[in-house]
Amino acid sequence: MKVVIIGGGIAGLTLGISLLRNNIDVVINERTTGTPIRGHAFLMHADGLSILNEFNASNNAILPGKMVDTYSLRRPEGNEIKRLQLNSWKCIKRLDLIRFLYALLPSEKIIEGRDFSHFIYEQEKIVAAVFFNGDIEYGDIFVGADGGNSKVREEIFGKVDFTPVKVKEVVGVSYNEKIAKTHSSIFTKFQNKKSGLAFGLIPTSAIEFVWFMQYDPSISDISDNTPEELSVFCHKLLKNFPSVVSEILAVNDFNTSYVWNTRDFDLLPAFHKHNVVLIGDAAHLALPFTSAGTTNAIVDAKTLTQSLMECDGYEKAFEKFYELRAEDVSKHIQLGRELTNIFLNPLDQNDDDLPVPLIAPKKEDLFAADKKEIQVLYFTDPICSTCWIIQPLLRKLQLEYGNYINVKYCMGGLLPSWDEYNKGKIRKPSDAAKHWEEVCAFHEMPLDGDIWMEDPLNSSYPPSIAFKAAQMQDTSKAVLFLRRIKEMVFLEKKNIIKWEFIEKAAFEVGLDSARLLKDFEGKAKELFKEDLTLAEKLGVTGFPTLFFYNKEKDQFILKGYQPYESFEEIINKLMPDAKKELIDTSPQNLFKHFPTMTDKEFAMLSNIPKDTAGDILVALYEDGLIDKYESKNGVIWTSKFDVKKGS
């Protein structure tokens, strides 16, 4: 079988590499000659990076680009309204990626200067592609990878109805060492609150940035695209933006910049006709706000290859390819349109509701707050040592019975202040230090009481309010946030009253730390008071306290530390037909669900002795699969499995 690929961009080159690696003959036909200059750079998602990293593994090639781990959305006045962690995004210059892909292909497989003209048919089957230079290429399967203005698509489906151009974009590349010191690894975007105007800045290397200006052409536009006029136009529109913008524009070569008229078209009813199939922008075109285009092209290439290898005949392969890709790309098309509408109507938007202009990673959430059979009301506190030592039990409960239970976290307010604290033998920070050391020794969960001697917390209210602020954004990430601040205080001796640690924890788990601060100073305080009122109403006097309910409103209560069998007994009483899930105890699976674990947590989830668990964890650490943080009284292990795989 011979595959003729029309279009030597990223989609066509990736497909060519993928097919050749599966022993399928290809020829790639590229319209242009020489080095491409349009398309400065793009952000690539983990889905695309993982495929390119597969190429790395067998060729020792170095994938170009710069990892981008932070998204910062600001107003032109400078105030930050969003700050989020980005997972596995990379900014890559188009030219660098093209060169990377070219190096992975035999030179004779790429023929330049072939501008597609038409197909030659024999009994409704295409047998050859004809190019304007007179060349003819015969083959069995033909792939249109010739971009958004695809001639192949037009020949087999006719013209598509493009949406009107509502947003235009100017793109450029600039070098600036000064800005690199403060904006390295950050996707920074300044967005006007009153009209459709934004400026974005993304690093492509240690000192290089790709920048873009998005604007509503109905407000202001340019008719003459000469470098001089383009420079004047950009400076005029962005004159009230921060100095970093003018500094970037000052060193930009406008001879290489251009205006991009952004548009898309509805999802096609199929990506193929007869023995011709489309991939990348030729098959589906999304507006640029999603940064999905290049990733989708690469995923298309891999998916089409797999379909061809797995199916009997190209017709079935093409149908499977469409089935596997249509839903995702349809969502990206819709997301692009929604983001465009938000951009053009900024006055209608609340800052908290502004979405991140990127495709969202797929995620699995075992503790989703849906209508499950058993509801659990869990009263806890960020500095409660007993709430820390039941973490192994709650995690095991999540894996074994997560299909049946939903846990709602409430803050109980353990320590208003030392002046107001009068519970048991603990009256002052030094008493808490001693208590933590005793709890650690008895329950084998690491706690370091020295924080109460070195930098004692005077209240648990600030981190509790921060948790309520986290819940306002995302209940699942709020649970991760609570876990992270517990690790900080129990093992790392961080005073989690201090905003620097609250902000760091929020950012690390994927919360918007800029919004968290606003909510922390605002509505979260009232939500915390509501938790305290509910705790008083229900008679909660200590932590942890867990209320279990089923749909018939039957209720059971667990207080303090209880054995795991007590949790199971309540589950079985509330739902007699509940069946325990069998846990995949492989380290990779456990660390997939819980990226950080102590020895005791790993032992309990693996159903092995703690000493055996320790030996396994040390071996994983020595193999570079996990990392560790050593406290005075124990270790917490952090997964590196994804990093090791290169995804």
User: CATH superfamily membership of the largest domain, which one?
Assistant: FAD/NAD(P)-binding domain
Unreliable runs, pLDDT <50, ≥5 residues? 363-369, 643-647
- Level of helix content? 25-40%
Radius of gyration: 28 Å
Distinctive features:
single chain, 647 residues, alpha+beta, FAD/NAD(P)-binding domain, Glutaredoxin, Arc Repressor Mutant, subunit A, 3 domains, 8-stranded mixed beta sheet, 6-stranded mixed beta sheet, 23 helices, 21% strand
Summarize the structure.
The chain is of the alpha+beta class and 647 residues long. It folds into 3 domains: 219 residues, FAD/NAD(P)-binding domain, CATH 3.50.50; 201 residues, Glutaredoxin, CATH 3.40.30; 59 residues, Arc Repressor Mutant, subunit A (Orthogonal Bundle).
Characterization of the model:
The chain has three domains: 2-40 and 47-62 and 91-163 and 263-353, FAD/NAD(P)-binding domain, CATH 3.50.50.60; 374-574, Glutaredoxin (3-Layer(aba) Sandwich), CATH 3.40.30.10; 587-645, Winged helix-like DNA-binding domain superfamily/Winged helix DNA-binding domain (Arc Repressor Mutant, subunit A), CATH 1.10.10. Helix 1 (10-20) packs parallel to helix 3 (94-102). The chain contains 23 helices and 24 strands. 40% of the residues lie in helices and 21% in strands. The chain has 647 residues and is an alpha+beta fold. A hairpin with a 4-residue loop joins strand 13 and strand 14 (208-215). It has an eight-stranded mixed β-sheet. A six-stranded mixed β-sheet has the order 6-2-1-10-17-16, with helices on both faces. It starts with a strand and ends with a helix. Residues 363-369 and 643-647 have low confidence and may be disordered.
